[in-house]
Each structure stands twice: as C-alpha cells, then as structure tokens.
Amino acid sequence: MNLDQKRILLTGATGGIGSATAIKLAEAGAHLVLVGRKQDKLDALKAQLANPGQHLTITADLSQPDGLSTLDSTCRTWREQGIRIDVVINNAGTNQFAYLSQRLGASIEQEFQLNLITPVLLSQKALGWINRPGIILNVGSTFGAIGYPGFSTYCAAKAALHRFSEAMQRELQGAGIQMLYLAPRATATRLNDDRVTALNDALGNNTDQPETVAAAITTALRKESTCTWLGWPEKLFVRLNQLLPGLVSSSIRKQHSRITEFVSKTL
Ligand SMILES: NC(=O)c1ccc[n+]([C@@H]2O[C@H](COP(=O)([O-])OP(=O)(O)OC[C@H]3O[C@@H](n4cnc5c(N)ncnc54)[C@H](OP(=O)(O)O)[C@@H]3O)[C@@H](O)[C@H]2O)c1
Fold it and tell me: pTM here?
C-alpha cells in the first residue's frame, strides 16, 4: 500500500514501538489516529510528528469494554463525516516477567485481554468501518512462536494472535482487507523491566531499537507482507522450534538457572 495520505489508526501509540512507528509513518505522509490512555501524552506525540495538524487522537483504555466502544463509535462517526481509516495497527500490549506460580489471576487476565482479546475485538469492529482496500496489522512477538520460561501467558496470547491473523488473512480473501502479523524480538522499551533487560544482557540476547521495529512495520504495510519475523538468529529459532522443538528446549534448559535467578529478583 502506498502510505501517502492514508489514515492509519495506531494503538499503543505513546509506547516505545508505537511512538517510533507514529514518527516513521507520519514521515511517510500518513495521517494518523493516535490511540492511548493519556491525552497529554498523545498531544505531546502529535506535536512531534510531521504535519501535526493532519493527525487525530482517541483516548481510550482498550482493556475495558468502554474503551473499545469509544474507539468504535468515534471511527463510525468519522466515517459518516468522510474521515475514513485505511489501516489499523494493533500495537498496544503488556507483559509481566514471572513464573506462573508467582502470578495473580487478574494480571493473567489483563495480559490475555490486551494482547489477544482486544486486537480480536478491535479487528472485528474495524471490519464495519475500515476502508477497502484496507490493512489490519497485528504486532506479535518472537515469543508467540517460542514458549519461554517466565513469559508463559504472554507467549500463549501472542501465539493465539499469530494464528488468529493467519486464519483471518485466509478468511478475508476477496474482501479487500489484508490481515498482517509482525513479530518483533526483544526491543528496548519500557515493556521490559530492569530484570528482563539484565537477563537479556546476561544471556547475550540481541535487542532492537524501537526505530528498527517502526521501519519494519512501515515496510510490511508498504509490501503488504503477510507475516514478518524480526531479527537474526531469532527467525531461525522460530523455524527450528516448529521443526525440532527438542533442540530449542535443550538450549533453553541451559538458561533455566539464569532465568530463575532474574525472575526471583524484586523490582
Ligand atoms: N519491547 C519488546 O521487547 C517487544 C518484543 C516483542 C513484541 N513487542 C510488542 O510490541 C508492542 C508494543 O510494545 P512496546 O515494546 O512499545 O511496549 P511499551 O513501550 O510498554 O508500550 C505499550 C503500549 O501499550 C499501551 N497500553 C498498555 N495498556 C493499555 C491499555 N489498557 N489500553 C490502551 N493501551 C494500553 C501503552 O499505553 P500507555 O502509553 O498509556 O501506557 C503503551 O502505549 C506490544 O504489543 C508488545 O507485546 C514488544
């Protein structure tokens, strides 16, 4: 898709990957709808973008039914007024680094809600107002393809988001809407608390800057790439885990005591 003057709705816009993506897409000539929980943060981001007068904001907590309804009704009203959305990027996400035995039920529900249920429901609502041709892009994770200790429910939510995206890409054949999936590897944002950053350093894991992910999202939209895995050797491990999961398990087994050490630290 040529992104010039396309209207792109971006959730999690004020986060690390979200704000870098907003900057990149605005530079490409897109007109954005920035979605976040705090109006002052949305206004500050909007002021930083190319052509700030072209961008709109929606304040909504997308983990709540009210937040999704607000977003849906705003987009419907705009459509009646001639403001049409060409692309939806489901980017808002959350996780908590902890073993399952350490987790509270409410935090598990919140993680599934924001990483899986919210993008599914927002995609469903978007089918009612998105322009054709249109694109819905879901931001997943390498952990959606590799089950990793300390992130079990996040891995599960992102794996389901991947499968949802694949099924919808096939279901929407001929409908004029593409559903794409893009999976970053570890990225330097506040999603990762100090323990996760220290663990990644200790294990020698690669970490991308949010600008790298923003560039990949922009390319995926331009090329309409169905599925994008970021990073080398992470994309090799994704394939290896499908074909020979025992090999990946034995490599992660060697990291287990390190992971336990960091997951047990208090923040
Ligand atoms: N960072 C990584 O290592 C990494 C790796 C792979 C995939 N990802 C994925 O990339 C996406 C962006 O993550 P990030 O790294 O940019 O994290 P981030 O900096 O923590 O940003 C997360 C964004 O989600 C928003 N959000 C959280 N709870 C929300 C809610 N209830 N309603 C609406 N928005 C909410 C946050 O809004 P506020 O600004 O209002 O807090 C923030 O804008 C996520 O889907 C994440 O799973 C990240």
Answer: 0.98
The answer to the question of residue 1 being in a domain is no
With CA atoms as reference, report the closest residue to 26 among 58, 51, 44.
51
The whole-number average pLDDT for the span 181-210 is: 97
- How far away, in angstroms, is 246 Cα from ligand 1 center? 31
Per-residue pLDDT reduced to its tens digit, 116-173: 999 999 999 999 999 999 999 999 999 999 999 999 999 999 999 999 999 999 999 9
In the chain the beta strands, taken as DSSP E runs, fall at 7-10, 31-36, 56-59, 85-90, 130-139, 177-183, 227-229
Number of domains in the chain: 1
* Domain coverage including residue 168: 7-263
Per-residue pLDDT reduced to its tens digit, 122-138: 999 999 999 999 999 99
The preferred substitution site among 189, 229, 230 for testing ligand 1, maximizing ligand atoms within 8 Å of CB, is 189
